[in-house]
Structure formats: structure tokens, C-alpha cells
Amino acid sequence: MKWSRVGAGPAPVLAVVVVAAVVAGAVAWAELPARLSVHGGFVDLSAYRYGGRLVLDGLPLYGSRDPATNLRFTYPPFAAVLMAPLALMPFWLATALWTAASVGALAGVVLVVGRVLRGAVAGWQVALVTLGALALEPVWQNLTFAQINLLVMLAAIIDLVRPDRRWSGVLLGVVAGVKLTPLVFVVLIVLAGRRAMAGRALLAFAATVAIGFVAAPRSAVTYWTDDLVRAGRVGPPELAHNQSVFGALTRLLDGPPPTALWLAVAGPLALAVVIVGAVWWRRGDRVLGACLGAVAMLLASPISWSHHWVWAVPAAMMLWQRSRWAAAAWIAVFVARPFVWPPWGQQREFGWTAAEQVPGEAYLLAALALAVWAAVRVSAGVPAARQPAATLRR
What we know:
With about 400 residues, the chain is mainly α.
């Protein structure tokens, strides 16, 4: 990429990041006396900081709640270790830095994917697409709750579209240690024939588990033997915002499905999608392969909150290269967030009619449509999208 032209350099992106950080810091400063009562309120960051504080104080990570938000820390102990520095700074400053990192990660995803799809992307183009992506519900929800998904997505996408780097796979292993669901990408790269890369990912993941046991041994035992298997620990699975197979089954059955039924439905679906993703990845279409791996991840997880669906951004960029109409339809779903059109909350999802189930499962249905489209193109022998040769050597 040439940075010498006006608007081609990083300045437009830096401007977006700085503005986002200033706004978030100011909002956090204003909301702090109200104990984060405004919608969003960066509550997840508050829970992250609480986990970091518990590690610093040598207290159990699981069983207590953040007094500011009444939320539990639900990630592995390694994640709490990473969050510890955030607990040492004022909330407004932590929010500003976290928002800057998240928006920067979003811009990083746009840059990495754009370079794979087009070969060169100017700074103003990255900034423009980043700003446009803020309209997608998973993205702005991620920012208002101060979630970690944009950072996880950037780490995963770097490894997945640039697999020939010496340490490829390590980033996948690290983010899997923070949030377990990226382990699905390890299955993707194994099926794609990159076993050395998968090995590095698993070693990195094992290192994160070991660090968690060293930093918080009792909490680590609790997490890996108890909390890991309790889907309800992170919130009511029937909530409309849970756009996963488990969530859909919970709403359809008026209660959590038997584990055997959930596995019988989600397992084959996720496996089929990840296999299709591996086929596209091996054929050189790494962005499509990565997006399908993300779809498999979101299908397989018992809880896939709407802000977990930030993978809608690279998927939209990939679709835009192939079909403007398909991309527009995809974007419309994630801007309109139809899952909140029917009544939701306080278990009202159990009363949804058959017609309300359609918008109520909007993200899930869109993802399945994407997977079917990709599978049909594979079976029809449609070639992978042409990509700049230089990007495949990076």
C-alpha cells in the first residue's frame, strides 16, 4: 500500500479512532456517577475490570458479581489476567483506551480483508468502511457494551488470511484462551490441511490455560470443571439476542433443549459449514473460508449474543466483491436487527408465533443462507474469487 498520496495514509483511520475514544471516554465519565445506568453503559468492560481486580487481589473469579453492573466474570482465568491492567486505571480512561483498541481492530479487519480482496486500500477507504460498519448492530452493540469481539476477530482474521507467517496459529490460540469459541477455527485449519498451524494454535491455547492455573489455581479448577458447561451462566439463553442454534431451540421448545438434541442439531450443522469453509479456504478463498468458520463457531456456541456477530463485517466485504444485491441484503439484516421486532425479554420469546420466529432468528437464518450459498457454489464447481497474487504471499 502506498501511503504518500493525500488521504492514502493512516491519518483518516487515526482520526476515527481518536474521535471514538474521546466520545467513549466522555460518555463513561458522565455515566460513572449513575453507576452505568444508561443503555449499554460499557457494562462488559466493567465486568472485565472486576475480573482483573479479583486476580490482583487473589480472590475467586467465579461466584461473585461486579457491584457496578451485577454481572459475573465469565471468561477463562487467562482473560482475567489480561484485564488486570484495566483495573488499575480510572473507568473513563479504560473505556477510552478499550474503545480506541476496538475501533482500531475494526479498521484493522477492514484493512486486512480489503488487501486480500483488492490488493491495495487507501487510508480514507479504510476509514469510510469502518465508519459505515458502525451502523451494523453487532458493531455498535459491541462498542456500547465494550465487548471484546472486535479484538478477537482481528487476531483470528490475521492468522486465517495470512497462514504462511512463521508464527501463524499463535494468535488463534491466544484468543481461544480468552474466549473458547475460536477453537472452531482450529478445526477449520486442520480440515484445510494446515496441521502445523493448528499445532501452534493448540500449544498457544494450552499456554493460556497454564497461565490461568498459575495466576488463579482455584478459580481455574472451578472454571474448567463447572462453569464451562453451564450455558445459562452468561444470561438467559432464550433471549432474542442469543442468535445461536441453542437459542433458537430454546425459544421453539419453551425451554432449554436436552443436550443430546442440541448436539444432534448444532453439531452436524456446524461441522457441515466448517467443512465447506475449509474447502473454500484450500481453494484460496481465505476470507470466505474464515467467514464460514465464524458462522460455524456462532452456530455451535450455546450463546451467540448479537454483538458476537461482528463477523458480519468481513462477510459483507466478501459478498460485495461477488454480488452487490447479496451484500445489500446481508447488510440490511444486520442494520435492521429484526430479532427485536417481535416482543422480547422476560421470556416473552416463548410466546412467539411461527411468523415471529422468522425475524426472531434473523442472524441465524442469514448465516445459514450464506452457508447454503457457499455450499451450492462449491458443488457447482464455481471457482474461488480472483485475488491479487501479492496478497496470497503475505
